[in-house]
């Protein structure tokens, strides 16, 4: 037990350094209130009021709490066996919130569990907060050499997967743009084209990047949803696909993961009715 305490103290120092570096590079506003989900065993969640006070000192507020039985997470190799973990991560993704594990060592025991949770959240632009100081799990590095190596291997597989999907998506997109340019002169509409010879459904049609935003927004959103939700491509990789074929945001900027997220979350929707969009330079 003493050895594990020393290990987690060392990990905390690494996380603190990563947190400082992340805030410095991102320009994160330290006064902004962040909504988080509390996750731990039953004994941890019973400290809700005390932990809420800790979170408040870091400008965070606990929105929901999920608990499992003491020893349940550490006693399994497969986190899908722990319903509270699945529920917490799912709620976090749906609500765009980080997950906070204030007692990672006692509650999860296994370092790989925390790595898996953090990498799932990071795929959705979120993160895992660790210890009572709410340190963010590392994104570029790792908690230690082994953790870094394992994370790098997973990211290498993801990058290869995303590159292959992006390349195929770009081919489909080029084909659809050619069809759009050769089609009618009226506004482009969202349509699902027929399946290919293998029976697989092809992506939604997209207009030319030159089509005005009010007509381009809806087909573009349809394609992005297909790429992210049906193909499992990350928002960052989706942004690279859009940029590679000349697509831009309504203000003419290159797409980024953050602006893809805004598109999916309706931040580019018109203020009055469909088609009456007024670009907002602050939104990208």
How would you describe this protein?
With 284 residues, this protein is of the alpha/beta class. Among the domains are: 32-146, 3-Layer(aba) Sandwich (Rossmann fold); 213-265, no CATH class. It contains ten helices and five strands. The protein has helices at residues 2-26, 42-45, 48-57, 83-95, 104-108, 111-123, 145-181, 213-230, 235-244, 257-264, and strands at residues 34-41, 60-68, 98-101, 128-130, 135-136. It has a five-stranded mixed β-sheet, sandwiched between helices. A hairpin with a 4-residue loop joins β4 (128-130) and β5. α7 (145-181) runs parallel beside α9 and α9 crosses α10 (257-264). The longest helix has 37 residues, at 145-181. The chain is elongated and about 55 Å long. It starts with a helix and ends in a 20-residue tail after the last helix. Mean pLDDT is 75; it is low at 1-18, 20-28, 184-198 and 271-283.
Output the keywords.
single chain, 284 residues, alpha/beta, Rossmann fold, 50% helix
């Amino acid at each position: 037990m003493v050895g594990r305490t020393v290990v987690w103290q060392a990990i905390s120092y690494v996380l603190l350094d990563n947190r400082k570096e992340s805030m410095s590079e991102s320009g994160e506003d330290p006064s902004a209130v962040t909504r988080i989900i509390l996750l731990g065993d039953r004994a941890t969640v019973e400290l809700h009021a005390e932990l809420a006070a800790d979170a408040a000192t870091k400008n965070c507020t606990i929105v929901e709490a999920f608990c499992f039985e003491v020893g349940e997470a550490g006693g399994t190799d497969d986190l899908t066996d722990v319903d509270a973990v699945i529920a917490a991560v799912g709620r976090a993704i749906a609500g765009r919130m980080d997950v906070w594990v204030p007692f990672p060592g006692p509650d999860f025991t296994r370092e790989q569990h925390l790595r898996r949770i953090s990498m799932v959240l990071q795929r959705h632009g979120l993160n895992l907060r660790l210890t009572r100081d709410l340190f963010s799990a590392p994104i570029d590095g790792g908690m230690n050499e082994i953790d870094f190596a394992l994370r790098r291997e997973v990211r290498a597989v993801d990058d290869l997967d995303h590159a292959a999907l992006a390349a195929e998506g770009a081919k489909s997109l080029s084909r659809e743009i050619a069809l759009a340019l050769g089609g009618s002169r009226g506004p482009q509409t969202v349509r699902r084209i027929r399946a290919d010879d293998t029976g697989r459904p092809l992506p939604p049609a997209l207009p030319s990047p030159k089509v005005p935003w009010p007509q381009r927004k809806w087909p573009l959103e349809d394609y992005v949803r297909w790429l992210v939700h049906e193909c499992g491509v990350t928002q960052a990789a989706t942004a690279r696909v859009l940029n590679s074929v000349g697509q831009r945001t309504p203000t003419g900027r290159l797409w980024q993961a953050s602006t893809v997220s805004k598109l999916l979350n309706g931040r580019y929707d018109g203020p009055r009715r469909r088609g009456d969009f007024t670009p907002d330079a602050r939104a990208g």
